[in-house]
Amino acid sequence: MTLIELSELTRHFVNGSDCVAALHGIDLEVAEGTFLGVMGPSGSGKSTLLSLLGGLSQPTTGTVRIDGIDIYRLPAERLADFRREYLGFVFQSHNLISYLTALENVMLPLAVCRMKPAEKRRRAAEVLERVGLKDRMLHLPSQLSGGEQERVAIARALVNRPPLLLADEPTGSLDSATSRQIMELFCELHRDGQTIVMVTHNRENLEWFDRTVFLRDGRIVEEISHRDEPTAV
Ligand code: ADP
Ligand code: ADP
Q1: 47 ligand 2 Cβ < 6 A
Q2: What is the Å distance from ligand 2's center to 47 Cα?
Q3: What range does the record give for the signal peptide (predicted)?
Q4: Res. 202 pLDDT band, cuts 50 70 90
């Protein structure tokens, strides 16, 4: 099944009298269960593409369909619900709240859910265990290593069980050994069926992806399939 469908997607920015085309007629279909890499030099449009996928921006022209939903046609409050239900975000600066424990940080996205507090804790604990932090749940971010903080951020992104996980340079600030461990974690999530779109400029990450699209000047200039995409079930 197709989870993401981008059609003639364009995004312009106006800077005074200059108009920058950050994205230029992007067409892309991504099957459910794919681990997609988005690579390209700085300024090629990767962040713009990810924010459009995340419902955080507005296309100048074209459409973003996720699970068949034309997301920028949704009224603002429905778009907010959609983002909560469908998307998990992992950023390079993981924005953990410094005075909350790992467990409390992971529970944050559940704040608006009608779920008993004990159930929220159970869910958050379960996903922390999933990312290998069973023994670190009550630690503050400052008591955790960079790799562990990244795991907390990944757990927080997954706690709502979103069909789509979006990651922007999630290993950008990690050393190469830690980076590898984090990529292995993403890979395990992917093996369990998680659809992931990851922006990176680290070529070493390429080996992990099912498929990689390369951007340059706002266009897809190359695409590599590393293995067969998951077929429809
Ligand atoms: P990347 O993530 O690959 O570094 P970006 O998507 O951040 O690329 O940027 C693509 C192009 O769009 C760049 O030329 C950048 O300067 C421009 N751009 C991105 N965001 C904005 C913005 N908010 N306002 C003006 N120009 C922007
Ligand atoms: P990345 O590190 O992912 O490439 P950037 O440093 O390109 O991200 O951009 C960081 C943020 O700044 C993004 O939200 C982007 O939209 C914005 N931005 C990028 N270029 C410009 C620009 N020329 N003018 C205004 N905002 C920009």
Answers
A1: yes
A2: 7
A3: none
A4: confident
